[in-house]
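Blinded run. Sample ID left blank on purpose so nobody reads anything into the name before looking at the predicted structure. Input follows.
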Amino acid sequence: STQAPQPVMRTSSITYPSGASVNFRELSAAFAPVAAMNAPHRSRIIPALENGDLVRQTLQTYAACDREMTGFLSWHNREIQNFIASVFQQQGLSPPDENQMYQLYMKFDADRNSVLD
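Blinded prediction complete.
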């Protein structure tokens, strides 16, 4: 099933079909520098988030980053970091640093096996 995009302005958290839950207020302090750098692109990115275009592009990027076609990306071989950076760069955005990436990634690695599947 496909998750319907949520209106960005009213979304304080989201729970993904995998069960991963991201509370944006929890991460706001850590991601404030990235948000500030990318603020000039906000009016362009919000519609892409809300209409699902960004989700579709991100899934294509995920598949492209899974070069060994394992069905998952690994933190240890930098596939996850490259995936996140690619998604941001494809949109003309400054990506988060590795510490910021790791904070967000850990929300999705519930079994702590160092892969994003």
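Unblinding after everyone has recorded impressions. The longest helix spans residues 24-38.
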